[in-house]
Design a protein that fits this description.
Layout lengths: L1 H13 L1 H20 L10 H15 L16 H10 L2 H30 L6 H10 L13 H21 L3 H16 L4 H13 L6 H30 L17 H11 L13 H5 L2 H6 L21 H14 L6 H25 L1 H17 L14 H34 L5 H4 L3 H14 L11 H27 L1
Helix pairs in contact: 1-2, 2-5, 3-4, 4-5, 5-6, 5-7, 6-20, 7-8, 8-10, 11-15, 14-15, 15-16, 17-20
């Protein structure tokens, strides 16, 4: 037994890649056992949609939930489906979570070494691996079957193969890159924009020996997505008689009432947060007492709204009255016509507030509000998703504090360094390959806080790896600068 253990230890010493992957996996797995009494593996929200859709595929023969056939793309199918065929639901869910963690850890080490070798030698691969491997900001979502963990793994692996193909001028890495980026799109459909960006990047930025070779690389990169998405489109057309290349709606199969969508529009005008599951948000102010009690939230005070969005008639008292209409519009004890009347009154009244802000507070609406939303997106409670249980409370607090420091350092530091690298690419002070690492954070900021008016924190997850790269570059450059200063002092 001891001989076998010694051989394993010797193998890990001689294989740094494997050693790092195993170490990171054990660290991330430890987190589950430390925090499992806090409900981190509870399947709800988006996770419920993915899991139950696959359950219906197994039990009913159709990938769907509540007769919605294309609400979510089947990105979890390759992970959960084969496990579910072999094991019970509970065991399959647990194994699937650890498979996601394993995929993520491998992708982190692969990505770290790839950018070190193929982007810039000034980048510390170890720093990138440390930031990504020891944070829980990404891996925490594997246990609740949100797509962020697996999507990040696919993105990092796809980018790594793409960088290898660009540097070596070989074709096979483009196919592998396309495979993982296609999987990324099936997990996070809005990343189709990144898929398209990469195609334009290959066409206009990367040089090849011949035009024919460039076209071959583009074809190989696109092949997997075109193949699998064609199957998805045909399947959707058979079931719904519509051409649906990604998913049926931007809300992922969720049928939000018009009243709720009107709150989204209203809060966006002044930089508010419509997410009712965020404690202390404007969305929580609108939520019903039953909802707040379910999640043990305290209703935010009326002072949550800035005074400058009101006047003598479009005021807070009017907004309180509209909130009562909002509650009555979903009161099942009332008949449907009465509920609809209250919904109409609510929408009409909130439209008056929106119109007032847009017409009389243009500076707030078009300048301050976007900046406020961007800041709320970046400056967030960096471990809000990690509750503390009664058991192991002290050690949980210790780990949570550790995670908070890493997350805050990488996100805040990465965000403020983003402009430096963004303009560095524009001014051509960065390599062509580095420009591939600039697109995603800016795209996420434009899409969510600016366009959709949402600051849901997990939407920033896909930017975290790039922030870690920016921080690693700056720290590496700082080390070089300090060494030069010490050298000059000695001489």
């Amino acid at each position: 037994m001891s001989t076998a253990i010694n051989r394993i230890i010797e193998f890990l010493k001689n294989n740094k890649f494997v050693f790092l992957c195993v170490f990171l996996f054990l660290f991330q797995a430890l987190k589950y056992f430390l925090f499992r009494n806090t409900g981190i593996s509870k399947i709800e929200g988006d996770g419920h949609y993915y899991v139950e859709s696959i359950e219906n595929l197994i039990n009913l023969g159709q990938y769907q939930l509540n007769s919605n056939f294309s609400g979510r793309m089947p990105g979890f199918l390759p992970i959960y489906y084969p496990l579910r065929l072999l094991f019970s639901k509970q065991i399959a869910l647990l194994l699937g979570s650890f498979v996601q963690i394993a995929c993520y850890c491998i992708s982190v080490v692969f990505f770290g070494y790839t950018i070190k070798r193929h982007v810039s030698k000034s980048i510390s691969a170890i720093l990138v691996i440390v930031f990504l491997g020891l944070t829980d900001y990404i891996s925490i979502y594997a246990f609740g079957y949100y797509t962020e963990t697996l999507a990040t793994a696919c993105m990092l692996t796809g980018i790594s193969f793409l960088l290898i193909g660009i540097k070596r001028q070989t074709t096979s890495p483009f196919f592998l890159s396309g495979l993982f980026i296609a999987w990324l799109v099936f997990l996070r459909p809005f990343m189709i924009v990144y898929f398209i960006f990469i195609i334009f990047f290959i066409i206009f930025i990367i040089s090849f020996n011949t035009f024919k070779r460039k076209m071959l690389c583009i074809l190989l990169f696109s092949l997997c997505f075109l193949f699998f998405d064609s199957i998805w489109v045909i399947r959707n057309y058979i079931n719904e008689k519509k051409i649906i290349p990604l998913q049926s709606s931007v809300y992922g199969g969720m049928n939000y009432p018009k009243t709720y969508l009107k709150i989204v529009d209203f809060t966006k005008q002044f930089g508010g947060v419509f997410l009712e599951w965020h404690p202390g948000s404007e969305g929580a102010w609108f939520a019903t007492d039953k909802y707040l009690k379910t999640y043990n939230f305290t209703r935010p005070s009326d002072k949550i709204f800035p005074e400058y969005i009101f006047n003598d008639t479009i005021n807070l008292d009017h907004l309180v009255q509209l909130r009562n209409f909002y509650w009555l519009s979903s009161d099942t004890s009332l008949d449907s016509n009465t509920r609809q009347n209250y919904a109409s009154l609510f929408i009409q009244g909130l439209d008056e507030h929106i119109s007032y802000i847009q017409q009389n507070k243009k500076q707030v609406c078009y300048i301050y509000a976007p900046l406020i939303l961007i800041w709320k997106f970046i400056y967030q409670p960096y471990t809000y998703y990690q509750p503390i249980g009664e058991d192991n409370r002290n050690i949980q607090l210790l780990f949570k504090g550790f995670f908070y420091l890493i997350n805050a350092f990488v996100i805040l530091g990465g965000f403020f360094s983003y402009l430096y690298f963004f303009f560095g690419v524009i001014m051509r002070k960065m390599t062509k390959e580095f420009s591939l690492l600039i697109f995603v954070p800016g795209f996420l900021i434009v899409l969510f806080p600016l366009y959709k008016g949402t600051v849901e924190y997990r939407y920033l997850v896909l930017a975290f790896p790039f922030f870690s790269v920016y921080i690693s570059v700056l720290l590496s450059k700082w080390k070089t600068v300090m060494e030069k200063i010490k050298f000059r002092r000695r001489n």
